[in-house]
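FORM 7B: Structural annotation worksheet

SECTION A. Query
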Amino acid sequence: MGVAFVTGGCMVRTVVCPVCGGEVELMDDVMDGEIIEHDCGATLVVRIEGDNIKLEEFQGVEEDWGE
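SECTION B. Predicted structure
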């Protein structure tokens, strides 16, 4: 669970990076599936389930070669 605060008129949520444990600030208009990059260099995917926001490490895109 993250912390929410207002900065510059926009709501910001703070969640934890699953790679380094550092704080990640997300704007209130962040969308499920959005890909972001954290200061530690990790590429993360935003997952929103109800009021909960969590981050998962991005695993990359797999080719399906038209199958």
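SECTION C. Observations
The longest strand covers residues 10-16. Strands lie at 3-7, 10-16, 23-27, 35-37, 43-49, 52-57.

SECTION D. Sign-off
Analyst initials: ____
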